[in-house]
Amino acid sequence: MRRSKVMTVCIALILAVIMIMPVYADEISEQQDLLEQINRQMDQQQNKLNNAAKTEKSIMGQVQGIEQETARTQKELKTLDSKISYLQNNITATEKQIQALQKKLDQQTKVLGDRLVVIYEQGDSSYLEVLLGANDLNDFITRFEMLKTIIDQDRELIDTINANKKDLDNKIADLEVQKRELEADQTSQAAKKLLLAQQLKDKKTVLDSVQNEKEKYAQAIAELEQASAEAEAMIRRLQGKGDGSRIGTGSFTWPTPGYRKVTSAYGMRFHPILKVNKLHTGIDIGAPYSAKIIAADGGTVIFSGWLGAYGNAVIIDHGAGMSTLYGHQFELLVNEGDTVAKGQLIGRVGSTGWSTGAHLHFEIRRNGTPVSPGGYI
Description:
CATH topology of the largest domain: Glucose Permease (Domain IIA)
CATH superfamily of the largest domain: Glucose Permease (Domain IIA)
Order of helices and strands: HHHHEEEEEEEEEEEE
Number of domains: 2
Shape: elongated
Structural class: alpha+beta
CATH architecture of the largest domain: Distorted Sandwich
Strand content: 15-25%
Helix content: 55-70%
Mean pLDDT: 75
Low-confidence stretches: none
C-alpha cells in the first residue's frame, strides 16, 4: 500500500514536471528575446552617442575651417584696403602734378608764342640790322653775343617745353594705369566682402545646426567647460612658475576703447547657442569687427592662439594670482612670452569659436578661477 502511494506521488511529480517544462521553456525564451532587444537598444543608443560625438567633432572642425578661411579673406581684404587707399592718394597726387605741369606748360607756351610773333613780325633782317648798326668791333662783338644769348634762350625754352610736354604725357598715361588698377582692386574688394559675408553666414548656419540637434548639446557644453578648465589649469601651472609678485598696476582698465556695452553679463545665463542655463564665466562686450582690444593691465602673455570654444584668445598673467582672458578675436597681435603694458594693443575684435557675432569675451581670473569682472573694473 505504501509502495503504491510512493509510486503515485512519483508519477504525479513526473507529470507535473512534464507539464511545467514547456511553460518554463517559453518564459526563458521570452526573457532571452527581451534581453536581446535591450542589448540592441543599448547598441543603438551607443551608436547614436558615438555618431553625435563624431558629428560634433566634425562641426567644430567645420567651424575652425571656416574661421581659417574667414581669417584669410579678412587678411586679403585688409591688404586690398591698404592698396586702394595708396592708389587713391597716389592718383590725387598725380592729378595735382598734372595740373601744376599743365599750368607751367601753358605759361611757357605763351612766352614762346610771344617770341615767335616778334620774330615773325621783324624777320631775320632785324638780327642783321642789329649787327650792322655796331659802332665798332667791340660793339659788334657785344651785339653778336647778345643775339646769341637770345637765340640760345629761345632754343632752351623750346627744349624745356618739349621736355615738360613729354613729362605731362607720361603723367597722364600713368594716371590712366592707376585708375584702371584702382577699378580692378575695388571690384576685387567688393567680391571679397561678399565672400566674407558668405563665410560668416556659413558659420552661423553650422552653429544653428547644432541648436537643432539636442544630442550635441552635452558635447558642446563639455567643450565649453573643457576650454574653461584648460585655461584654468594652464593659468595655475604657469602662474606657479613665478614668485607670485604683482606684475601690473593692480587695477584694470576697460579692454575695448570706445565700446562699453555689455551684451551678456557674468553669471548664470541662458546660453544663446546651446539653449541651456550655464555659467557665463566672463562678460561679452559688443564691438564691431576689427575694433581694438587692449590689455586691461600690464603683465606677461602666457597664451596666444586657438583655445577651443573661446576661438582665438589671449591670456595675460598680471601676477599676484590675477590674470585676464580675451576671447573670440579675429586677429592676435601679441605672442606667448611678450610683456605688455596696461592699455597696449593686443588684438582685434572678431567672432571666432563659439560665437555668432562680433564681440569680446573678457574674463578676470583669480588663481585661475573666473570671478566677476564687476568688482575689478
